[in-house]
Amino acid sequence: MGILLIRTVVSLALSLGIAARAYKHKSLNRSGAILGFVVMAIHIAAGYRFGALILVFFFTSSKLTKLGQEKKMTIDEDFKEGGQRNWVQVLANSGIATVLVVILATITRGEDKCLDTKNSALMTGLIGGVVGHYACCNGDTWSSEIGMLSKGQPRLITTFKPVKKGTNGAVTIEGLLAAAAAGLVIGLAYTFVGLFTTECASDVAWKQLLVIPIAAVAGLCGSVIDSLLGATLQFSGYCSLRKKVVSKKAPTVKKISGVDILDNNGVNAVSILLTTLLTSAFCLYIF
User: 189-222 in b/e burial notation, b at 16+ Cβ within 10 A?
Assistant: First the structure.
């Protein structure tokens, strides 16, 4: 069997096992597990490095979501047991990258390539976009989950005024540091797996290590962009009846910030798109 066929078989078996386990442990609901199986299989079949990125994002974010979930239930209006995600959330966090890895697999026929604009600017831009995509996703999740549990006072990113935990667009020092660390982990995963799957020319081999700091910056930037969008284009208000921050207007809700244009999935999708484009452009410049 060819390399691509072998990887496809591996991807189907591995993705099915992971999706079934995630459904059992309530990390994904039924629709989320079905779509999660599809996108994981596509990523792994397209390249082991891409599979590593989505798996690192999924496993680390799932673990952090479940951490301190009793406290999070009192803060986050939409928090579900186990941090259960549905198909919309899976799509928002993987849709753009899935399109990019399909394009890459078509161009390279499933062969891992190095970041090198001299060889292929298109390929370099696409790979950089995938890295930026998951650095943003991981950074936003780590920032939110750790920020909710931190003892620091959240501040609205647009005004720096103290706000209640759970307010869209609120940031903490711990959360921002977590976002950078989350991006760093994505960069490390990409680079480590690449050591076994790619052979780069000597003049560009050392440059591949730059993915690590680039991903760390992308994780932080993605979280900041998400917070800016959340503070301005997503409504936040305090409900005197439920005693928590909510994202829908009601007679018992006093506005904190933002306007009701985007929901949480919309904010995630836009921040991911912007971070993907910025990281792609930066990789074209660096490599």
Answer: bbbebbeeebebeeebeeebebbbebbbbbbbbb
Supply the pLDDT for residue 157.
95
In a domain, 242, yes or no: no
Residue 110 · residue 11 · CB < 8 Å: no
Instruction: Kindly indicate the confidence band of residue 80, based on its pLDDT and cuts at 50, 70 and 90.
Output: low
244 is a domain residue: no
Q: Which distant-in-sequence residues (6+ apart) come within 8 Å of 15 by Cβ?
A: 36, 37, 38, 40, 41, 44
Q: How far apart, in whole angstroms, are the C-alpha atoms of residue 111 and residue 131?
A: 17
Q: How far apart are CA 34 and CA 16, in angstroms?
A: 9
Q: What mean pLDDT do residues 199-220 have?
A: 90
Most distant CA atoms of the chain, gap in Å: 65
Q: Greater confidence, 154 or 79? A: 154
Q: How many domains does the chain have?
A: 1
Lowest mean pLDDT among 1-15, 16-30, 94-108, 240-254: 1-15
Establish if 256 belongs to a structural domain.
Answer: no
258: its two tokens: 């933002």
Find the domain containing 149 and state its range: 3-234+261-286
CB 179 within 8 Å of CB 142: yes
For the stretch 23-40, pLDDT in tens is: 888 888 899 999 999 999
Is 255 part of a structural domain of the chain? no
Q: Two tokens at 248?
A: 């829908």
Q: Which position has the token pair 């899976």? A: 90
